[in-house]
Write the structure tokens for this entry.
Amino acid sequence: MIASIYATISSSLHAVLLALLLSVSHGILKYSTSKQHDDFLDLLISRWHFIALALSMYGIVFLYYLFVLRSSPISSLYPVYTGLSILFVSVVGRFIFLEPISSQHVIGIALIISGVLVMGGIEYQ
């Protein structure tokens, strides 16, 4: 059953799923550091559950990426995955953490989206 579901998902969709998971883990890490703490050790002790969750998600992303690499070309998967990760993390920063976005940031995001569209459209036989 998993193999049949996997076969119907394109490399671009895998890249989107990988980027979403990675972006959520970055958001969790940001949230864990946004609360007051005295030092790094206090942060680790007081927010360990969020840090462990984010690290677990990193592990899931790694294993999923390893699985997807078996049948997807790295030359298009990786650029699309990382480009989308940058885009999604920017969205999380702006709308969840209310971080400012400059005009340079918007131009950079537009260029990344252009690259993702170009790289995601490459088909390999």
